[in-house]
Amino acid sequence: MMLQKTARASAHQRDSDHVPSHSVFGFWLYLMTDCIVFASLFAVFAVMSHQFAGGPSGKELFDIPGVAMETAVLLLSSITYGFAMIGANRRKKGVLIGWLAVTFVLGAAFLMMEMQEFSHLIAAGAGPNRSAFLSSFFTLVGTHGLHVTLGLVWMAVLVVQAIRAPELGERELRRLTCLSLFWHFLDIVWIGVFTFVYLASVI
């Protein structure tokens, strides 16, 4: 009797793993709404980018080499996440967890550099309340940083789930795929921030 129940449970699990899921499609819809949010923030920055209120401009404030280092770290994290997905698709749990750990460290390093930049600007009297330009800057870049923070929390949860799972099934792969879409999306947004906010402000 117990063996029959176990067999039925295993069969049910296999069937549920192969049931078509709408979670990835639904996550694409979520990313569309996030695109609208960031597009709105970019539009606000475009309008406010020359409203300095007698304060410093981006050319005076931004450290382009430092921001370039932030950009390189975040883009590298996207590559390491790709390696993690290769391991996941090959059902190699150790490879997946290892590359996710590297990605997490890179994402955390990006956030630390961003927080140092914010701290430096505020200490120099260039906080978000100094001008409309700085308000829009902090809002846009801070929103991206918040998304990276949420992505790191999500990544940590998936690592714990992967460790506890007896094997990597379709459900785990779907969750990893959704985070992959989110993480690469944040890279694309940051490229826009680096180009449109930082580089355009110092030219």
TrEMBL record:
InterPro entries linked to this entry: Cyt_c/ubiquinol_Oxase_su3 (IPR024791), Cyt_c_oxidase-like_su3 (IPR000298), Cyt_c_oxidase_su3-like_sf (IPR035973), Cyt_c_oxidase_su3_a-hlx (IPR013833), Cyt_c_ubiqinol_oxidase_su3 (IPR014206), Ubiquinol_oxase_su3_dom (IPR033946)
Name of the protein: Cytochrome bo(3) ubiquinol oxidase subunit 3
SUPFAM superfamilies: Cytochrome c oxidase subunit III-like (SSF81452)
Assembly information from the UniProt record: Heterooctamer of two A chains, two B chains, two C chains and two D chains.
UniProt similarity note: Belongs to the cytochrome c oxidase subunit 3 family.
Annotated ranges, domain Heme-copper oxidase subunit III family profile: 1-202
Keyword Transmembrane attached: yes
Domain of life: Bacteria
Lipid bilayer topology: Multi-pass membrane protein
Membrane-traversing stretches: 24-47, 67-88, 95-113, 133-160, 181-200
Keywords in alphabetical order: Cell membrane, Electron transport, Membrane, Oxidoreductase, Transmembrane, Transmembrane helix, Transport
Known function: Cytochrome bo(3) ubiquinol terminal oxidase is the component of the aerobic respiratory chain of E.coli that predominates when cells are grown at high aeration. Has proton pump activity across the membrane in addition to electron transfer, pumping 2 protons/electron.
Recorded name of the encoding gene: cyoC_1
Location in or out of the cell: Cell membrane
